Amino acid sequence: MFTIFGASGFIGGYLARHLARQGYKVNTPTRDSLPNKKNLGHVIYCIGMTGNFREDFSGAVDSHVMTLQRLMDNNEYCSWLYLSSTRVYGGGGAESVANETSEIFVRPGGDAIYDISKLLGESVCLAKKNSSVRVVRLSNVYGLGQSKFTFLGSIVEDLLTRGESIVHESPDSEKDYVSVHDVVELLPKISLYGKERIYNVASGRNTSHESLVRCVEGVFGGRVYFSPGAKKRAFPLIGIERCLGEFDFFPRSVADGLDFY
Question: Which residue intervals define the domain NAD-dependent epimerase/dehydratase in the entry (predicted)?
């Protein structure tokens, strides 16, 4: 049995449907019916916020930390998988490779609320002396129904509603993207069989904004423009050796994955 917290969201919804198709019993509690003193089986905690965390700091902290803590303390479970983010590596420099043992650099401030709250949620999990409590740091997950508050989701939303979009970062900015279909196939395997406490789940390669928006234009039509003189924003390359070695993980490229919209 799996319990998916956050099944009404993008990743949680895909995951719950995937597990049901695999024949698992899947519980999907809502915010209004969070369990207490229950045996939850194998838990995957997908509750979280995306780019809208800047408008709701307290919501981010509650989602990433406080609700997590209450549920872990008040229920029994066979395993627990907490979905964090590779965004926590953002302070490491574009020239570096970020793996699960890399040092993490965070500068306090409003834009760091997301990273710090995710790291605190990770710490709540990793403080448990239980090897079946694990953390996944997810890259930028894309697919049909993704939030309009994400970078790619906002571009798609603009193209669908206005036929054009403006990017306020340079064309050579880059980040890692991973398909939601690859993610939901891998997460249950980590939950059930993972040997480590932390895993990066990403494509393992960065895609420039220029390449990405041309793929998006090819799928949705319209036109994406870049603001003149915009700054470059680049993230470290995400190392995925753990997933490659343990699970024969072969993530598709973002250009291929856009076909799933």
Answer: 4-42, 78-202
Give me 204's structure tokens. 């393992």
Domains and CATH numbers, the chain: 2-142+177-204+237-252 (3.40.50.720)
Q: What secondary structure letter does DSSP report for 42?
A: E
Q: Following DSSP, what letter does each residue of 216-242 receive, concatenated?
A: HHHHH-SEEEE-TTPPP-B-PEEP-HH
Vertex 220, ends 11 and 214: CA angle to 5°? 95
166-200 burial, b at 16+ Cβ within 10 Å, e below that, comes to ebebbbebbbbbbbbbbbbbbbbebbeebeebbbb
SS3 259: helix
CA gap 31, 34 in Å, rounded:
6
Q: What's the token pair of residue 149?
A: 């508050």
List C-alpha distances in Å: 7 to 62, 92, 105, 124, 222: 17, 32, 31, 21, 32
Angle between helices 151-162 and 209-220 (to 10 degrees): 40
Query: Given pLDDT bands bounded at 50, 70 and 90, which one contains residue 259?
Result: low
Pair 15, 184: CB distance under 8 Å? yes
